[in-house]
Amino acid sequence: MSPLPSTPTGVADCLSVPLLAGASGGPISHAIIRVARLHHMLAGQLLRRSGLYTGQELVMMHLWENGPQRQVDLIRLLDSDAATMTRSVKRLERAGFVRRRPCPTDRRAVLVEPTQASQALREQVEALWPQLDQLCLEGFTDAERTETRKLLERLEANLVRAAASNITAEHGKPGRGIDRRPDHH
Question: Is the full-model pTM beyond 0.90?
């Protein structure tokens, strides 16, 4: 794997992961993992400037666009688990970006809503996406950018279909996401 252009000597070598022999039968899957890892790392670095951790921007985006949400619905929408979402919402609440209150129609549920203070954060989060795209697609032509998006959409559709098929096969009915629970046979 050649060093990345325009990076300090040695830094690119630390960040890039060579194709492992055990993954040579699935070079595309291995490339997706490598790219996702780097994208996640870079997104995290950009988000830290606004005081967020990776994943919290998605919670906030759902709240800004859809208004108050039951915490259980955020878990489902973001394919999260209860413990992770609870930690995330508590951190956002401590930072003053969300407030939790009892759901008026379901005593067992908690509503999470964005605060007025979070609106300044919204501009920063929305500016993050074009920054990430620019960093990812530097040197790509417009046609290559369009083709990359189309190929990623096809990959996503294939993976959604495969995940739904696996869930149906395992549980006998369509699922609502990938089941992350360990098998208990």
Answer: no
Decide: residue 88, CB within 10 A, 0-12 exposed, 13-18 middle, 19+ buried.
buried
Q: Which residues is 77 bridged to in the sheet?
A: none
**Hey, where are the domains in the chain?**
29-154
Picking from 77, 72, 79, the residue whose alpha carbon sits closest to that of residue 100 is 72
Q: Give the pair of three-digit tokens for residue 82.
A: 């209860």
What is the C-alpha separation between 156 and 179, in angstroms, rounded? 17
Q: Which residues contact 88 (CB under 8 A, 6 or more apart)?
A: 53, 55, 56, 59, 80
* pLDDT tens series, the chain, 185 aa: 333 445 555 555 556 666 667 767 788 998 999 999 999 999 999 999 888 989 999 999 999 999 999 999 999 999 899 999 999 999 999 999 999 999 898 888 999 999 999 998 999 999 999 999 999 999 999 999 999 999 999 999 999 999 888 776 666 655 444 444 444 43
CATH code at 29-154? 1.10.10.10
